[in-house]
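Next comes this protein:
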Amino acid sequence: MFTVNHKNLTLSFNEFHDVSGKDMMPQYGEFCLLELKNGDYTAGEWNPDNYRSKKSTSGKFIRGTADTIGSEEVGRWHSLERYDLTECLEDEEIDWINLGPEKEGCRSVQFEGFKSFADRKNPKEEQYCLLIMKDGSLAAGRWNKWRHESGGAFIYAPALGSHSSDDVWAWTPLSTDEIFAKELELENEKKHERKLNKNPSVDPELFRYGIDINAYYEKALLKLREEFYWATVTKMKKQTPVWQIAPLHGKYVFCNIEKNWSDDSDIVIPWTEGTTADEFIDFLCRYTHDAVKNSNPEEKFKFGTDINVYLEKSFNNVKKDYRWLDKKMLRDSWQYDIRKVDGDLEFVRKYGNERKYSVYDVESAERFIENVEQGYQSAAIQANKTVASYEPHFGHISLYGWNLESYVFYKLQSGDYKVSVTAGDRTTGGSREFFITPYCFEAKTYEEFLDRYLEIVPDYSFGLGKKELLPDNNLKQFLGY
């Protein structure tokens, strides 16, 4: 690695070019150091409005995603792409590097104060920096720290084109710009908020019962039990987000807390529907009412607390149509149980070889059985290989902004049938499979079959209806009619 001491290094940029129309402009796509008309320094990739003219000053310098500088703001530019500093940086005696010849009357600007990630120094978030890369080249970019690991990247182009911190030897900040100034302002606000919240005040009317949120849930619980004898705090807290007490602007508030997607900091969203503790307790009763109502254990566990009873019912229900289903096909599917969680009985589940069960919250035994059936149906379909297929011909079909891409009937090894439908737009798409139940094939005529089939795969949702499918003799023959 380079032997120059980066802390003592100065880069001198000489021979800037004016943005005036009289001097040449950079090549299209050339990355340049920029001196703005207000005296600030930044960098960017030249993107002219007129690609054919090398003297046209109309265009912009791209600094990153949604981050540009108009050429009208730029006074001078200096290329960053034409230099390889490797030879200089390998001489430990060097502390000054000229970029371009020094001449009398030429514009020269010096940058120093270089820092290194090797010294565990990071730029501030959104700070735009001049970079010396480990391959000896020069670059620039806006610092973005990686959220869940050490290091980060300097964004310098659209679509988050970036230089990884692993590729940067040394960096020094360029001028403060609007984006960085906003980040500094936000950081100062956070510091001020942290200072205010060190010793938050307590409104005696709002926090009459203290600053433990469970005290308020317990009081709301007493009221809910007048209507729902089975109510518990655990059942109340199924209504999410769960309310908390936290400091905001120097005082405690009832609140929800969300995570800021950009930096994982807490966003405190205060309760604003009242000003007293009893008003908040009444609000909690309303807020958790439906969650408690739908947790009636007599409805939820009406067939008892032996999970095998529910699974057997699910299996037998699915077996009626999916005749080839056997329990060996379910080994890699969801596993279910009934267990106590925080004092309440719950349906729980885990997938495959997972070690821990998680709560599977449903309001009734019937709903639980229905959901288990869906998993069993999927496992049965996956275990039944396809032996033939037929794709009806169709033109352009648009459904709620999505275009029908594929509509295929499959014959299964068991002699049954399924259909797969795929639709999408320019950026996304999706597929669904439907089992064609034996009930459909009990129809005596192809037309009657379609009437039953289209209850499963309706034309208004999936594109093809009776008008398209009835005349299709090949499909009719494929389905055995």
